[in-house]
Structure formats: structure tokens, C-alpha cells
Amino acid sequence: MTTDRQRMGGRQARRAAILCNDKRFRLYLDARRRNRNRMTREQLPDGTHSAEDAADFIRDTCGISSRAVLDHNDAARQMFVRIIEDYTRWQRHQQQTRG
Questions:
Q1: I need a labelling partner for 71 at 20 to 30 A (CA). Which of 3, 42, 49, 83 fits?
Q2: pTM of the model
Q3: Which of 85, 17, 76 is nearest to 52 (CA)?
């Protein structure tokens, strides 16, 4: 049985929601898709991914139906941590190439 606390989510669910609304994270998703599909910026411009696309990406990648599950499923939480690590690595690379 699902409790109210599980439906609401906690720290990780809030963290995921904030991440989905972060324009830089959505730019990361654009770059990630271009890289994986060997696409150019003309084929997939920056700004293509919406906050809902980002939420879909997290849910699909973590194998969950709701971000609230991140606080109650260890495997999903570990995958979410990996998403954050990959995103952080991409951010560092962006900063190094710019400056």
C-alpha cells in the first residue's frame, strides 16, 4: 500500500523537480541527445527540451512512474544520483571549454 508520504515524495523528489526546471539541465539534455544521435545544433537546437521532457527523462531513466518514488526506491535513487553526476561532469566540461 502506498502511503501519503510516498505519494508526496521527499528530498530527492524535490531535488528532481528543481533540476527539471533548471534551464542548464535542459540544455544538458539537448547536448546529450545530439551526442547520442550524432545530430547537429541545427537538427536539435538548444532549448528543445522542456521541464516536462526533463521529468520524463528522469522517470524513464530511473524506471519509475513518479519522481516521488526516488525517496523510496534505492535503485531509482542511485540512478538519479548518476544522472546528477553526469550532468555535473558536463557542466564542468562546459566551464573548462569556455574559460
A1: 49
A2: 0.87
A3: 17
